[in-house]
Design goal:
The protein is of the alpha/beta class. It contains 8 helices and 8 strands, in the order ααββααβααβαββαββ. Bound molecules: zinc ion. Zinc ion binds next to helix 2.
């Protein structure tokens, strides 16, 4: 334990307990979630977006704790390994530059860096958010899709790579991931998998998340 840890002991991002940034009990409380597909592309999530994991994602994003990517990413890495998903490189959903500047970091980029490091794949930063989009909370699925249309563009070398894994922190309706994937496809690339730390269970108005043999997510 370092000097700063004595002055400011770390608190668990899930339960606020003192001692560690993410405690064993909170880690064990994460409910695994079955792989799904989003627009025919595999969607792998580390866990359900509720309980300790939901609180930890909130702390990670809004509490100025970018280092939590290292503590929280193992559940996603485990889900990737369990799903035996193959991909060539790792990209991430970008924030608009103004939002990134205000937050100081992009949580999706931090998670993607962990995924890249642990899977031995290169991390690519070719996706850009070209249009600031209002908050998605409270919008219906068609409203979200309209809100996100043309929000992303591929700024890297063209054609964009094949077999990209696209990382985000949370998937609620999938509209953000779909919009980012569309930008990759428009640049000639392809997405092999969507990788998110947590997936919400709320059904979108128009279901886009489907499990094999089922019309929509449970
Ligand atoms: Zn905890």
């Amino acid at each position: 334990m370092g000097f700063l840890d004595l002055l400011f002991p770390p608190r668990c991002a899930g339960c606020r307990g003192y001692g560690v940034a993410w405690c064993t009990a909170c880690g064990r409380s994460v409910e695994p979630i079955a792989p799904a597909t989003l627009d025919t592309i595999p969607l792998i999530a580390g866990g359900r977006f509720d309980g300790a994991l939901q609180r930890a994602v909130h702390t990670f994003k809004y509490g100025g704790r970018p280092g939590l990517a290292r503590e929280l990413s193992p559940v996603l890495i485990a889900a990737i390994e369990a799903a035996e998903i193959g991909f060539q490189a790792v990209a991430y959903v970008p924030l608009h530059p103004e939002r990134r500047k205000a937050r100081g970091f992009n949580q999706a980029e931090r998670l993607a860096a962990q995924v890249a490091r642990r899977t031995g794949r290169p991390l690519l930063d070719g996706l850009a958010r070209v249009r600031a989009t209002p908050a998605q909370v409270g919008l219906s699925q068609p409203e979200r899709q309209a809100n996100l249309a043309r929000a992303f563009t591929w700024t890297g070398a063209r054609p964009a790579p094949q077999g990209l894994a696209l990382v985000d922190d949370v998937c609620t309706t999938g509209a953000t991931l779909e919009a980012a994937a569309a930008a990759v496809r428009q640049a000639g690339g392809s997405i092999a998998a969507f990788l998110v730390l947590a997936r919400a269970q709320t059904l979108p108005t128009v279901p886009v998340v489907t499990l094999p043999g089922q019309p929509a997510c449970p």
